[in-house]
Design goal:
Blueprint (H helix, E strand, L loop, with lengths): L33 E10 L4 E3 L10 E4 L1 H8 L11 E6 L2 E6 L6 E3 L2 E2 L6 E3 L4 E4 L3 E11 L6
Antiparallel strand pairs: 1-2, 1-10, 3-4, 4-5, 5-8, 6-7, 6-9, 9-10
Length: 148
Amino acid sequence: MKCEWCKADNPEGETFCQNCGSPLNRMAGEERGEFPTNIRLALSNNREILLSKEGKESEFERVLGRSDLKEATGENLNYISREHFRIIKDGKKLYIADNGSRNGTKLNEEEIRGNGKKELKKGDEILLADVLKLRFEYDMKDIKSGGD
């Protein structure tokens, strides 16, 4: 089975990529009555932007832009809008929407600017202004057992 993130080949039946750790079955967990927790964006420099902490996801919505990303990357990000995109939780699903940015947002190589909100899955690739690549990550917590 080929990893959607790093393109590495993995043996059939594997749940996570042996190379990068991304889930191979991106629906895993959603079928078991679980919901996302510790929502974060992974950057190519191995840093992460934590968007939520465990237990704080019930009314989750986060707007991200230049200053949030500059702090994590240390780069001058003039091509990223001040409020470039937002991530929204609706029920058990997470969505991304471009906030009318000047240089656009792509989700898995598809431009989403002007196309409303799009569902996010663990391991999805977000590309801002055709320059800054992020990977969407989260952990799953079982609703019934409280995650134990």
